[in-house]
């Protein structure tokens, strides 16, 4: 690039040509600044296709709104970089806004699967009398009296087994914290 190509005078002439609707002016500007715009967009988005899209959007904006550039405010190059930054950051925000619900859904699925796996482990590792009492109460819909009768134990013993089994199962939600831990008082 020749030094006079980057002068404020060149910037003013380019803006005037664009304002008159000269397609050749847009072509010259694209040839000169497309790599700058694309590289800035790619740096922000880290995505080749998105950077291509931002580049097209920036030059479409320049074509449709040449009056938004004011040569008194600074060089055309700086203005293009600013427009590119603004468009790329907005694209990044839009992408993150779309990805957030998906990320939350995946985290929720992983959390539920983790709790289910932990509950399964707890049920299979608890003593057989507790497991039998929970099976009767949960799967066969027995109350503590029916559970006691089916197991041949007292009602107090059936309540104790059910309470202890449920307390153990409740720890499945507290993955990473020891059973009975309540934090600092």
TrEMBL record:
InterPro entries to which the protein is assigned, alphabetical: RNA_pol_sigma-70-like, RNA_pol_sigma-70_dom, RNA_pol_sigma70_r2, RNA_pol_sigma_r2, RNA_pol_sigma_r3/r4-like, WH-like_DNA-bd_sf
Species this chain originates from: Streptomyces eurythermus
Keywords assigned: Sigma factor, Transcription, Transcription regulation
Protein name per UniProt: Sigma-70 family RNA polymerase sigma factor
SUPFAM superfamilies: Sigma2 domain of RNA polymerase sigma factors, Sigma3 and sigma4 domains of RNA polymerase sigma factors
Classification lineage: Bacteria, Bacillati, Actinomycetota, Actinomycetes, Kitasatosporales
Domain RNA polymerase sigma-70 region: 29-95
Pfam families: Sigma70_r2
Transmembrane intervals: none
Ion transport in keyword set: no
Superkingdom in the source lineage: Bacteria
Family: Belongs to the sigma-70 factor family. ECF subfamily.
